Amino acid sequence: MPKALVVRLSAIGDVVHTLPALAALHHHGWETGWIVEPPARPLLEGNPSLSRLWPAPSARPVAWGVAYRVLADLRAKEYDVALDFQGLWKSAAWARFAGAGRVVGLSREWRREPGSSVLLGESMALPPGIDHVIDENLALLRPLGIDAVGAREFPLPATAADRDAIDRALAAIDLERFAILNAGGGWAEKLWPADRFGALARGLRDRGLPSLVTWGPGEEDLAGRVAAASDGAARRAFPTSLLQYVELARRARLVVAG
User: Fold this and answer.
1) What does the alpha-carbon distance between residue 94 and residue 54 come to, in Å, rounded to a whole number?
2) Are 120 and 24 in a shared domain?
3) Same domain, 18 and 111
4) Residue 258: its pLDDT value, please?
5) In angstroms, what is the C-alpha Rg of the chain?
6) What is the DSSP string of 113-177?
7) Does 27 share its domain with 103?
8) Are residues 107 and 123 in contact, defined by beta-carbon separation less than 8 angstroms?
9) Whether residues 33 and 131 fall in one domain
10) pLDDT value at position 158?
């Protein structure tokens, strides 16, 4: 069985966008490992399409001793190919030094840090007609003989405990039909203002759909501002883990994220 290493270290949304490529590798008979930094790790632990999860240390500060030990273990695995889905110096370095037979990534003009292409063994330009980042990731599988552009399968771990926790939390607030408004994000300058989320919640209420405002670490106050701006159309959600949020989103009629 051929072995592939997925290099997508962060962030949570980008890891989700790479899951269809993981599913495609799995369906085509590849044994797949993935190296990832801590925040997105819960999305991959116990993932049914993944053979091995490699824990990359956080980028800041760099734990060089941990990185060296992980690299030693990666090299011992003798992957046939390392796929750099991130296009950064740090991702290209992990792909290069993992000791895989091939190191594949997008060519210079398609990378967030163009100079990092020097660390690749094989680079490819995006073919015409690729518009979504999910399809960019899937296109990177073509050098392996896998044409899965357009696929939308998102393998995620699921546990009865997370499902039960969300069922109990929704029952406690007597909520069945709802929209999720997720106002937070990693880049403050990219966020939609709280008052606009509040206006959206009022519009959804007028159409018979109440809203839950979800939040992550450090975002509870933002969620409260959205709820306050909604005139009672939205409420701040209960706290969730990352996988509990996935279960909550599966139950929502609509998800609007910043």
Assistant:
1) 11
2) yes
3) yes
4) 76
5) 20
6) SGGGGGG-SEEEPPPTT--SHHHHHHHTTGGGT---TT---------HHHHHHHHHHHHHTT--S
7) yes
8) yes
9) yes
10) 79
pLDDT of residue 58: 83
Q: What tokens appear for 224 in the block?
A: 């409260």
Tens of pLDDT, residue by residue over 10-35, are: 999 999 999 999 999 999 999 999 99
Quote the domain boundaries for residue 21.
Answer: 3-144
Mutual angle of helices 242-251 and 160-172, in 10-degree steps: 60
Sheet-wide strand order for 52-55 = 52-55, 31-36, 3-7, 81-84, 102-106, 122-124
pLDDT for residue 61 is more than 90: no
Lookup result for tokens 């939609």: 192
Q: What is the pLDDT of residues 145-160, one digit of tens each?
A: 999 999 999 999 878 9
Residues 184 and 138 in one domain: no
Distance CA 15, CA 36 (A): 9
Can you give the pTM of this predicted structure?
Answer: 0.89
Q: Is residue 104 within 8 Å of residue 80, measured between CB atoms?
A: no
Average pLDDT over residues 159-166: 94
Q: How many domains does the chain have?
A: 2
Distances (CA, A) of 70 to 45, 67, 89: 17, 5, 18
